[in-house]
TrEMBL record:
This is Putative Zn-dependent protease. TPR repeats lie at residues 328-361. It comes from the Bacteria. Keywords: Hydrolase, Metal-binding, Metalloprotease, Protease, TPR repeat, Zinc. PROSITE patterns: TPR. Residues 82-272 form the Peptidase M48 domain. The keyword Transferase does not apply. Pfam families: Peptidase_M48, TPR_19. Its cofactor is Zn(2+).
Length: 509
C-alpha cells in the first residue's frame, strides 16, 4: 500500500569472511517490526571464549538476532502483515509476561512457509511458519507451540548451543552474516532471500538436547497455564504431530524433525497437563485466531493453483462451519484469496457473505478497505478507513490504511500531520517514515522528503543510503537551522558508517 520509494539503496561488495563478531558489534540502530528499536553502543569485537554458556552475552546474542532481522523486509518468505504480526506478538507478550525468570524482549514474526514448523533465533526472535498456524485447531494449541519456543529463549538454549557447537554452528552463522552484509546495502541482492532459510537451518543444526526440549516444555507449560490458555493445547498439538510422523515418516512435519518428540516427552507433557488442568471446559478460541488462520492459509500459497486450492478449501469450510464466527472467518479468507487473484467481484461477494448477519471484525474492515483500494476507489477507502479507525483505534494496520487513503486522494498535508502523529506513537515502525517521505514528495518538499527517507533507511540498517540522502538534503536546504540539524545527523551517521567499515576491513584478509 506504500508508494515505492525513488531512492535505491547503495550497493556494497560481499565479504567472504567470518563476520559473526563484526555484526554483533555493529552500532547501527536496527528496526524490528513490532518491537522496540535497540540503540546499541559500540562495544568493540566480542570474545566468544571457549566453553561457558555465558560467553555469548544476552546483549551480543540480541545483536546477532537484530542483524538477521534487519533483512526481514527483503526476504520473500517474510510476511509483512500488520494484523498477523500484531496478533502473534500480543500472544507472545501475554505468554512471556509469565516467564519464570526475567527474559529479553520476545519478537515473533510470520514466515511464508506451508510446512508445520517454528524456530527460535538468537536474541529472542521466533519465526512461526504459516503452515503451523493453519494446522492448529485452537488458539491454545498455537500458544502451546509458541510457549515452547519462548521456553528455549528463556533458558538461552540458542546461545548455549552456538557456543557449545561453535565448530559447526559458528561457521554457519558466519556464512549467513556474510550474506546479510552483502544484502544490507542492496535490497535486490540474492543473498537477502537467504536470511530466514539459513536461520532455520542454524536452529536445526543446534539440535537441542532431550533435556533442553524437556526444559522448554516445562517452562512453556508454566507460561501457558498462567496466561489462561488451555494447558492441554501443547500436549494435544504435539501429540497430533507425533502421530502423523509415526504413521508415515515421509509425511513427518518439520517440527518433529527439528524438535524430536519422544514417548517420554509426550508422557511428561500429558502428565503435566493433567496436573495443571482445572477440569473446566477449555476457553473458546477468540475470533482473531480464526481470521488470522484463514488469512495465512491463503498467504502461504506458493502458486496460483495453491491459491485456488486454498479458496476451495475455505469455501467448503464456510459451508461446514458450526459457528457464525468460523463461517465469517472462512469467507474472509475466500475474499483475501480472490483479492490476491484480482477478482474483485468475487472478493466483494465473499466479503458480503462474511458480514451477513451484521457480523464485524477488524480484519473484515481491512478487507473492505483493500477491495476499495484495489478497485481504484480511493474516496471510499478513505471513508471506510476513517470509520474503522474510530471503531478499532489500536489496530496499527488501519493506521497504514488511513494514511495510504489520504495519499491516494491527494491529501498530503493531512497525511503529513497524521503520519507524524503515528511516528510519535509507533517509533519502531519505519514504514510510517517511508510514507511520510512520499507525502513530502507530493508536497514538493525535497529536503523534508530526503530527511524522512534517510530516517527510514537508518532504521532499517542502510546507513550509507541514509548518509547519501542527508547529504543531498544538506545541499538543497537554504535554512541555517535546518542545515545545522542535518549536519548533526550526518556526523552521527558518518561516525557509525566509519566504525562499521573499519571493523569490516579487519576481516578482509
Amino acid at each position: 500500500m506504500v508508494t515505492p520509494t525513488r531512492f535505491p539503496l547503495l550497493a556494497r561488495n560481499a565479504l567472504a569472511c567470518a563476520l559473526l563478531p563484526v555484526l554483533l558489534a555493529l552500532p547501527a540502530p536496527v528496526w524490528l517490526p513490532g518491537a522496540s528499536v535497540a540503540h546499541a553502543q559500540p562495544a568493540g569485537l566480542p570474545d566468544l571464549g571457549e566453553s561457558s554458556a555465558d560467553e555469548l552475552s544476552p546483549r551480543l546474542e540480541r545483536r546477532l538476532g537484530e542483524a538477521i532481522m534487519a533483512q526481514s523486509l527483503t526476504d520473500p518468505d517474510y510476511i509483512d502483515d500488520p494484523d498477523i504480526s500484531q496478533y502473534l506478538n500480543t500472544m507472545a507478550s501475554n505468554l512471556s509476561a509469565h516467564a519464570p525468570s526475567d527474559t529479553q524482549q520476545i519478537h515473533v514474526f510470520p514466515v511464508r512457509d506451508a510446512s508445520v514448523n517454528a524456530f527460535a533465533m538468537p536474541g529472542g526472535f521466533i519465526g512461526i511458519n504459516a503452515g503451523l498456524v493453519v494446522a492448529a485447531q485452537s488458539e491454545s494449541e498455537l500458544a502451546g507451540v509458541m510457549a515452547h519456543e519462548i521456553g528455549h529463549v528463556v533458558q538461552r538454549h540458542v546461545a548455549r548451543g552456538l557456543v557449545q557447537q561453535k565448530q559447526t554452528s559458528i561457521i554457519m552463522v558466519a556464512a549467513l552474516l556474510a550474506a546479510l552484509v552483502a544484502a544490507r546495502g542492496n535490497s535486490q541482492a540474492p543473498e537477502a532471500a537467504m536470511a530466514f532459510g539459513q536461520a532455520a537451518a542454524i536452529d536445526a543444526q543446534l539440535g537441542f538436547s532431550r533435556e533442553a526440549e524437556r526444559e522448554a516444555d516445562r517452562t512453556g507449560f508454566q507460561m501457558l497455564s498462567a496466561s489462561g490458555y488451555d494447558v492441554n493445547g501443547m500436549a494435544t498439538f504435539f501429540g497430533r504431530l507425533m502421530a502423523l510422523s509415526s504413521v508415515n515418516e515421509r509425511t513427518s512435519t518439520s517440527f518433529t524433525r527439528t524438535h524430536p518428540l519422544s514417548i517420554e516427552r509426550m508422557s511428561d507433557m500429558q502428565n503435566r497437563a493433567r496436573s495443571l488442568s482445572t477440569g473446566a471446559a477449555p476457553p473458546p478460541s477468540p475470533p482473531d485466531f480464526y481470521f488470522v488462520r484463514a488469512k495465512l492459509r491463503v498467504l502461504q500459497a506458493a502458486s496460483g493453483q495453491d491459491t485456488i486450492d486454498a479458496i476451495r478449501f475455505l469455501e467448503s469450510r464456510a459451508m461446514e462451519a458450526t459457528t457464525g464466527i468460523e463461517k465469517a472467518a472462512a469467507y474472509y479468507g475466500v475474499g483475501v484469496g480472490y483479492l490476491r487473484r484480482r477478482d474483485y467481484a468475487k472478493a466483494q461477494e465473499a466479503y458480503d457473505k462474511a458480514t451477513s448477519g451484521a457480523r464485524d471484525h477488524v480484519m473484515l474492515a481491512g478487507l473492505a478497505i483493500d477491495i476499495a483500494t484495489a478497485q481504484g476507489n480511493a474516496d471510499k477507502a478513505l471513508t471506510l478507513s476513517r470509520a474503522a479507525r474510530e471503531r478499532w483505534p489500536q489496530q496499527i494496520s488501519l493506521a497504514f490504511d488511513y494514511a495510504d487513503a489520504l495519499q491516494r486522494t491527494g491529501r498530503h498535508s493531512d497525511a503529513v500531520v497524521f503520519l507524524n502523529e503515528q511516528i510519535s506513537r509507533y517509533p519502531d515502525q519505519p514504514r510510517f517514515r517511508q510514507m511520510l517521505a512520499t507525502s513530502y514528495g507530493g508536497l514538493q518538499q525535497p529536503v523534508a522528503e530526503r530527511r524522512a527517507m534517510a530516517e527510514f533507511y537508518s532504521r532499517t540498517g542502510a546507513m550509507s543510503a541514509a548518509v547519501e540522502l542527508l547529504t543531498q538534503a544538506r545541499g538543497m536546504s537554504k535554512d541555517f537551522y535546518e542545515q545545522s540539524q542535518i549536519d548533526a545527523q550526518l556526523r552521527e551517521l558518518q561516525r557509525r558508517v566509519k566504525e562499521e567499515n573499519d571493523m569490516l576491513k579487519r576481516f578482509k584478509s
